[in-house]
Specification:
CATH architecture of the largest domain: Sandwich
Shape: elongated
Radius of gyration: 27 Å
Oligomer: single chain
Distance between the termini: 108 Å
Number of helices: 8
Helix content: 25-40%
Strand content: 25-35%
Length: 334
């Protein structure tokens, strides 16, 4: 007599695959699994779809559904074209069961996200202001001007250390391989385990620069992660959905926080842009004939006045401070 299969508990199966069961639930599920070969085959089918649906390190439910549809129906269309009747009621039943499983997966994933999105702690900065925040896990966040950072009091009961950022911040993330650190910005997500890096997100750009470790960046416009290692960066353009990965030639991306600037044969125009970002200054090159002067210099914890004096003496230019806060660089008149 053929063994009658027992229906799978899709909710319990989802928890089992996500390793969220307690000891009693795990033993109960494994007992069901061992009860028959039919149960093993059914679980194997669920597991295959599960693995395909959760392939991305940063889960995206829309992508999971697309993968599910492709897995279930890509052969069906072909079978119909050749007149085959392979896709039976039994296959439809399996498809429905797998869909239920993925729904269960989405439920548990989003349920956990809902916990994490309840980020009750907020710090923000005004113009020309910086703040530091140490998180419960030991991670350190340095917030740049005109930025806002949301985080939770505790991440002990959560699978991820989710935070939200609008603006710019430098992160030193405490290592925890079991609990990734995820930064949500208006333009995408950044996922790390333990590393130090800078994130800048505004209306048109997402820029990530890595100082140490590895970082995974997933923009809202793509389902493909960009993996960054030490001394690498990526710029995501929101306007045209372009993603540009590059090597960092210097550490000026972190200068606003470290006050270390290195200029190795860059134009005066480029150097001024970096100085303005670092010191929140408003330096303007008044004479276009001097903007392409070549700058070779290194500044570590120097004041803005010191840097301006070096530029003035090196290039024999004038530095004039205006009442409105602007600083004009101009050619000297004889």
């Amino acid at each position: 007599m053929e063994e009658k299969p027992q229906n799978i508990d899709t909710e319990l199966c989802a928890k089992y695959l996500a390793r969220e069961t307690n000891d009693e639930q795990r033993l109960a599920f494994e007992a069901w699994l061992a009860a028959s070969e039919n149960n093993e085959r059914e679980f194997a089918a669920y597991k295959l779809i599960w693995e395909k649906s959760s392939k991305s390190e940063v889960f995206n439910e829309d992508i999971a559904w697309k993968r599910l549809e492709n897995s279930l129906f890509k052969n069906t269309k072909h079978n119909k074209q050749v007149g085959s009747k392979v896709f039976s009621i039994k296959h439809l039943s399996i498809a429905a069961s797998v869909a239920i499983l993925v729904v269960s997966y989405l439920f548990y994933f989003m349920k956990d996200n809902e916990k994490q999105i309840d980020l009750t702690q907020v710090i923000s900065t005004a113009e020309k202001q910086q703040k530091q925040q140490k998180l419960e896990d030991g991670s350190l966040v340095c917030l740049n001007q005109n930025s806002e950072f949301h985080f939770a009091n505790s991440y002990s009961d959560l699978k991820q250390r989710l935070v939200k950022l609008s603006g710019e911040a430098f992160f030193e993330v405490a290592p925890d391989a079991e609990k990734p650190f995820v930064i949500e910005t208006p333009n995408g997500k950044i996922r790390v385990v333990g590393t130090s890096f800078n994130v800048m997100s505004n209306d048109s750009l997402l820029v990530v620069s890595v100082k140490s470790g590895k970082v995974a960046v997933l923009s809202n416009a793509s389902d493909v992660e960009t993996i960054l290692s030490k001394d690498e960066g990526v710029t995501v353009s929101v306007l045209n959905n372009e993603i540009s990965k590059y090597r960092l030639d210097d550490l000026n991306s972190f200068a606003w926080q470290t006050k270390y600037l290195l200029f190795n044969d860059v134009s005066l125009k480029e150097a001024v842009m970096e100085i303005n970002k670092c010191y929140y200054s408003n330096i303007i090159i008044a004479d276009s004939t001097i903007q392409n002067f070549h700058v070779f210099a290194e500044f570590e914890n120097k004041s803005l006045n010191t840097i301006l004096t070096v530029l003035e003496n090196t290039f024999n230019i004038s530095v004039e401070k205006q009442s409105n806060g602007q600083i004009l660089l101009d050619s000297k008149t004889d």
